[in-house]
Amino acid sequence: MKHFKFLFLCLLLVPTLALAHGPSRQKALVTMEVHASPAEVWAIFSDFCSITKWNSMVKTCSASQGSEKGSVRTIEYDTGEKVTEKLYKHDAENMKMLYAMEQLEKGRIMKGLPIATLSTTISITPADNGASSLVQMKGAFYRAFPGPTPPEDQTDAAAVAAVTTLYQSGLEGIKAAAGGK
Amino acid sequence: MSAIKTALSFLVLSWACVLQAQPYAYITNQGSDSVSVIDTATNTVIKTIAVGHRPAGVVVSNNSKRVYISNPESQDISVIDTESLTVIKTVKVGGGPLAIAISPDDKSVYVADWYEDNVYIIDTGTLTVKTKINVGDSPSGLAIDPNGLFLYVANRDENTIMTIGLLDNTIVNTIKVGRAPFGLAFDAIRKELYSANVQSGDVSVVDLNQQKTIKHIKVGSFPYAIAIDDQHDRLFVTNQRSNTVSVIDLKEMATIDSIDVGDYPEGIGLHPDKNRLYVANWFDNLISVIDINSLEVIDEIETEDGCRAYGQFISNQ
């Protein structure tokens, strides 16, 4: 019992003893069914800069080398925040893309998107014998706030919520572009 | 009476040995603050052990009796007894313990703290911190030579590997490698050290006789950890953003193949039977088992959230 009490005391002391402390990587995952063939859906988002047409949270986009692997696009969110993202995978055969935001400068915290890194995979799984598509966006990212006690709008949970909202907006846009079904 | 006691403890001991007839894989699950214990004979999870906050690093002692888990966000090490499969002690260490390694005689555990830029040395007898050594910026990977004379530290944010002499715990050399070195592997046969460089997407080959980098081998994007296959003279490297494992031929010093695994592969370990590799896919909460001869994924095992298994995570027996 004494030991338990001691352990409990140690647990209580941990946050105050933590001088240097860093976040760990977080995940977000959103899947949506779009009632259109995988080829039709792929045509909607496969161009690296088509994002302005299917995600209303992204206002502008320009890419260095189109949709070639290694192409870097600069996008501007509706908040006015600008970031660059690099295309790591553009796999037409498996209808899959992977791109990642270049790590933000230390100390920068974006409005409405409190993350420092973000790699996104967007992919299609055929459903209903190829008549329909399951579109999935998944992301791995770190929150931007480096210390142990982030303000409420910059926590891991806030970062997960913000990336989830971004992906939902994207998938809804893809669905709308495919006819809204 | 004492004869009975001896006989009894012998029985218990042999029973314990039977229970541990096959090597176990100890998988850190960063999202769920736990370790999944996989019996590699059946490739099933036989137990899940609660550990500290956001566990990442792992090392199994050479005698397979203990497992040490690093918990960066509770800033401690969970010590697991492999017979009872329970945490027997938690040792406070630094500000962000991540990479972890053990001396060949199992007497010292080395922990890289990547926030305070130290390597801590834990005495495994007393389970207390013995000393610390200040190293380079963001130490992220550790490797030890089989003689226990040198410890190698990958300093991620200064693109170097430091050699620490373990007789007097001093830094004896600093070697330039690729950008953002993370996982290290020590090759006792070739007398080489390898680092997976996250930012430059390659593996640096360090010749230990010359004490310098002799080659950079391109792999996938965001390489993380390395396993050595000395039967085929190959390296296997997990690539977090390619979702692959690169196969490097050490005679050709080139990447010769790539194996598709799950999303965000991180920890990789060679089974003691030298026929299988275990890979932890962080995003998918999934272990991929690769046949080392056919280079095919032959099995998958589900874990809890965010498996990482960064370090020497498979027991010898």
Write the layout of secondary structure elements.
The complex is a heterodimer of chains A (181) and B (317).
Chain A: H1 2-17, E1 26-34, H2 38-45, H3 51-54, E2 58-63, E3 72-77, E4 82-91, E5 96-101, E6 115-127, E7 132-143, H4 156-177
Antiparallel strand pairs in A: 1-7, 2-3, 3-4, 4-5, 5-6, 6-7
Chain B: H1 2-19, E1 24-29, E2 34-39, E3 44-50, E4 57-60, E5 66-71, E6 76-81, E7 86-92, E8 97-102, E9 108-113, E10 118-123, E11 128-134, E12 139-144, E13 150-155, E14 160-165, E15 170-176, E16 181-187, E17 192-197, E18 202-207, E19 212-218, E20 223-229, E21 234-239, E22 244-249, E23 254-260, E24 265-270, E25 276-281, E26 286-291, E27 297-302, E28 310-312
Parallel strand pairs in B: 4-28
Antiparallel strand pairs in B: 1-2, 2-3, 4-5, 5-6, 6-7, 8-9, 9-10, 10-11, 12-13, 13-14, 14-15, 16-17, 17-18, 18-19, 20-21, 21-22, 22-23, 24-25, 25-26, 26-27
Could you please describe the fold and organization of this structure?
- The complex is a heterodimer of chains A (181) and B (317).
- Chain A is α+β, with helices and mostly antiparallel strands.
- Helices cover 28% and strands 34% of the residues of chain A.
- Chain A has a seven-stranded antiparallel β-sheet with strand order 1-7-6-5-4-3-2, with helices on one face.
- In chain A, a hairpin with a 4-residue loop joins strand 4 (82-91) and strand 5.
- Chain A starts with a helix and ends with a helix.
- In chain A, 32% of the residues are buried.
- In chain B, the strands form seven sheets. In chain B, strands 7-6-5-4-28 form a five-stranded mixed β-sheet, with no helix packed on it. In chain B, strands 8-9-10-11 form a four-stranded antiparallel β-sheet, with no helix packed on it. In chain B, strands 12-13-14-15 form a four-stranded antiparallel β-sheet, with no helix packed on it.
- Chain B has one helix spanning 2-19, and strands spanning 24-29, 34-39, 44-50, 57-60, 66-71, 76-81, 86-92, 97-102, 108-113, 118-123, 128-134, 139-144, 150-155, 160-165, 170-176, 181-187, 192-197, 202-207, 212-218, 223-229, 234-239, 244-249, 254-260, 265-270, 276-281, 286-291, 297-302, 310-312.
- Helices cover 6% and strands 54% of the residues of chain B.
- The two termini of chain B are 32 Å apart.
- Classes of the chains: A alpha+beta (181), B mainly beta (317).
- At the A-B interface, helix 1 of A face loops of B.
